[in-house]
Amino acid sequence: MELPSQTSAAPGGRSTALAAFSAVTVLFFAWGFITSLIDPLVAAVKGIFTLSDAEAQLSASAFFIAYFVMSFPAAALIARVHSVPSILIALATMVGGCLVMLAAANLAVYPLVLLGLFMLASGITVLQVAANPLAAALGDPKRSHFRLTLSQTFNSFGTFIGPLIGAHLFLKGVEVKEGAVVTDAVRAEALGGIDSAYFWICGLIVALFLFFWFSRRIVDAAVPPAPFGARGTMGALLGEAFASRWARLGALAIFFYVGAEVAIGTQMALFLNSDAIWGQSDAPFGVPLLGFAMGSDGVPGVSLQEAGKAVAFYWGGAMVGRAIGSILLARVSAARLLALSTAIAAMLCLYVVTVGGATAGFVALSIGLFNSIMFPVIFTLTLERAGARAEATSGLLCTAIVGGAVIPYFIGLLSGAVGYAAALILPAACYVLLFVFAIAAARTAPTQAAASATVH
């Protein structure tokens, strides 16, 4: 869909569309950055509030449960008020979430952290449903795939730098090993880091809100019709999605994939910092790029802050893997590539569980590379086979992202009982189930064209 002629012809119309696309791309970056801050935040709150692993993982649960609560309501909201007003509502909700996080940091109240994260994720859920069609629509329709891919690249970049900055701000001096004591000074500095991070995030979101408010007419004119429209109520779409066997299977696959990916990411800093992995080893500092990013403090072994910075390479592997996967998917069956990726990810988890040691740290970080193509491939394989309308199936699949709220909590319980390395048996089991899904998809012919699929 091209921009309306009056918009394109108006002085500055095209430059405004470019500015609008740039702002949408910043949205992609912002929600990737905010989401990946959960990883160092889990480690930080464990030390700040003296929590168990499972209690600390409630931070991830509070964030990702918003997808379960908000996915279908977000689509209904966009159908009712259109994309740009929905984005404004989402950004306002996120500003509220940041203000709650600032209160949590200044009052040192953990339940407020959970509330703030839920509000942030609720806004991000609406953004994810609204921003993808915006990125595709703002410009020449022939280049829509390029624009969407470019925006998603910035999202991946946000997930890469989030752990680096979060670890720097949240984890200085924080230690969570048995017998370690977090002093009042260290606790105050960590809370101050959380305060600083969400203060600047709040400022960025306010700036984006103002941009979309003042350019709302021009941007809104470029948006394609809302996907729900007159095609069915939210209840009808839910019923249609649940009536499809493949929609249900795809939702389970998304549940286990997101759960495994988030569980590994949120435990990664604690895992790497443990004495059984890198806590008493200087091995990672010998790896040029990794060692530079971690920034050795000169003390033997890997501190929690240094481990938190290494988590960026878990997400960085996913960023690189998406580029490689895009090339491979042009030559290899999507179902076969998914089967290969899930099988390798399961074996890497089992290596960590059975072998351990310093090498297990590098192996665990490499799992991100094989996670990279799983979400989009599961999505498209499901949409091709579901038989239900794409918007109905997509809504159910987005709701299944709640796996990121459930499985991290259980891996927290497991790590508290058997240790961080052995706890990776849970994501290993998730990857095995995803392998079974991939094999089933390879043996089932698509029932609708991939071109009709719309991934939010």
UniProtKB/TrEMBL annotation:
| Pfam families reported in the protein's UniProt record | MFS_1 (PF07690)
Listed InterPro entries = MFS (IPR011701), MFS_dom (IPR020846), MFS_trans_sf (IPR036259), MFS_TsgA-like (IPR050375)
Ranges of residues in domain Major facilitator superfamily (MFS) profile: 20-446
Q: Which UniProt keywords apply?
A: Cell membrane, Membrane, Transmembrane, Transmembrane helix
Which Gene Ontology molecular-function terms are recorded? transmembrane transporter activity
Membrane topology classification: Multi-pass membrane protein
Recorded hits in PROSITE patterns, A to Z, give: MFS (PS50850)
Q: Where in the cell is it found?
A: Cell inner membrane
Listed GO cellular component terms? plasma membrane
Q: Where are the transmembrane segments?
A: 16-38, 58-79, 86-109, 115-138, 150-171, 197-214, 249-272, 312-330, 337-356, 362-383, 395-414, 420-442
Signal peptide stretch: none
Q: What is the protein name for this chain?
A: FHS family L-fucose permease-like MFS transporter
Organism whose genome encodes this protein: Sphingopyxis panaciterrulae
